[in-house]
Amino acid sequence: MPVSPAYRPDPRFIDLGPDYADTVQAADFPQTTLRVRNDRAAASVGLETLSNEEWIAHFGRFAPLPGQPGPIAMRYHGHQFRTYNPEIGDGRGFLAAQLRDDQDRLLDLGTKGSGQTPWSRHADGRLTLKGGVREVLAAAMLESLGVPTCRILSLVETGEALERHDEPSPTRSAVLVRLSHSHIRFGTFQRAAYYGRKDQIEALIEHVRSLYHPQVAVGDVPGLLAAVVAASARLTAKWISAGFVHGVLNTDNLNVTGESFDYGPWRFLPRYEPGFTAAYFDHSGLYAFARQPEAVFWNLTQLAGCLKLVAEPQVTALTEALNGFGPAYIRELRAAFLNRLGVKSLGEAADQRLLDASLALLRDKGEALRWEPLFFDWFGGFSSSARALGGARGKIYQGEAFDAFRFALLEHEPDRPERLEHPMFAAPEPEEMLIDEVEALWSAIDQGDDWAPLHAKLARLDAARSAWAL
Fold it and tell me: Could you identify which of 80, 269, 290, 367 might form a hypothetical disulfide with 274, taking C-beta atoms 3.0 to 4.6 angstroms apart as the criterion?
């Protein structure tokens, strides 16, 4: 047996039947070179004991893991930049396995770049190596900051020369495997609604309720929507506190557990800039940094419309559940900023003062402060004042905006101040993920096949994860 006793297969998506996915085969790649192997994530699902050869067999050649039925490409629709598209689905990926983790959560192993499927349309079903590296970095950074995110389990280079219209070509290819808490998207419900399949919507509701939100009673559709709304509000607030811009918040890129995944043109803020966009093709700024709550709420509205088809008598309760997003988001945003500053809640009014003062200071100091350094300098609350004022940005911590921030922070008691003993907080700068560093990491790989800088960055991010302990 190539897996550990902790491995627990549980392929539950097939319980829904053949109307939700198509059986597919992975592409036959000319080479499979293991580039990233996440043993910490693998250990959570009992896969860390695989040898590198076994790893490549399962995550480069996609031999089914024990107890798994084989790859299936999931069917879904979606609003893409608010235009409905019924022609999409898993076009370059599939669900490779489902299994239980060490917290008894049902997790998915999903691929990206694994070849063509019935939903590929005219695309090649492949992933560029640069795209895979960027996704590895995004997930690692978000996890370090306590954002609900998939984890990248594996990245294998596959030896093909890909042509892409939006980057230098030919370019190297890869296949990626992510470990996610569900791949059931809002768009999965939209596809069933598009075809008027109330039976499929009802089946999805019970599937999602029983597996991901079991605290919701059977038949309580508004309760299920409220659970998804709450999870989505928490996720959105965490993105904002991390200074993260997803870039493509279409309905097929949000799932029912409030865990983010599928990182394409993402960026982290270089400085406080509400209108900052990640995707070069987002000409209207629809998915700009500060518009992400609006985008998530709009997508939740589409999900609610699907649920309404089978819960018309409960429409008032559905509306109330949906409208809970705004208040939940504000609560979660306050909590997220307190969490990032390492201080305890003092109540709604004081917490709101600290949130407002933090944003005002970030806006006031702009490029001199950036985003991430504020939380690094002042982590642990006012007990970090000597460290912050004596550090690289000590001279900018002055003026009216800083005075308001300092007063608001002084009110709040440190939360687990022993975390400041971690060596990371003795460094002059935090770990960031700005575009210049991302491009430098890729350049080392592209120009010299030098993977050492990437692996060093991932090691530092893992240390930061332990230090923040968010």
Answer: 290
Nearest to 233 by CA among 302, 316, 103, 322: 322
Nearest to 424 by CA among 379, 455, 374: 379
300 touches 255 (CB < 8 A): no
pLDDT tens digits, 267-322: 999 999 999 999 999 999 999 999 999 999 999 999 999 999 999 999 999 999 99
| Amino acid code (one letter) for 289 | F
Whole-number Cα distances in Å, 116 to 21, 93, 262: 14, 8, 17
Q: Report pLDDT for 32.
A: 98
Give the count of beta carbons closer than 10 Å to the beta carbon of residue 379.
26
Q: What is the pLDDT of residues 336-381, one digit of tens each?
A: 999 999 999 999 999 999 999 999 999 999 999 999 999 999 999 9
**What radius of gyration do the chain's Cα atoms show?**
22
Shortest CA distance to 9 belongs to which of 70, 85, 100, 82? 100
Beta carbons within 8 Å of 97's beta carbon, 6+ residues apart = 9, 11, 64, 65, 68, 108, 109
State whether residue 346 is helix, strand or coil: coil
How many Cα neighbours within 13 Å face the side chain of 366?
2
Can you tell me the distance from the alpha carbon of 243 to that of 435, in angstroms, rounded to the nearest whole number?
Answer: 13
Place of tokens 């003092």: 346
Token code pair at residue 41: 């994530």
CA distance 204 to 202: 5
Confirm whether 90 is a catalytic residue: no
What pLDDT score does 1 carry? 52
> What value, to the nearest 5°, has the Cα angle with vertex 340 and ends 212 and 401?
140
Residue 66 Rama label (left phi>0; alpha psi -120 to 50; beta): beta
- By C-alpha distance, which of 60, 234, 82 is closest to 132? 60
Catalytic residue among 90, 252, 262, 351: 252
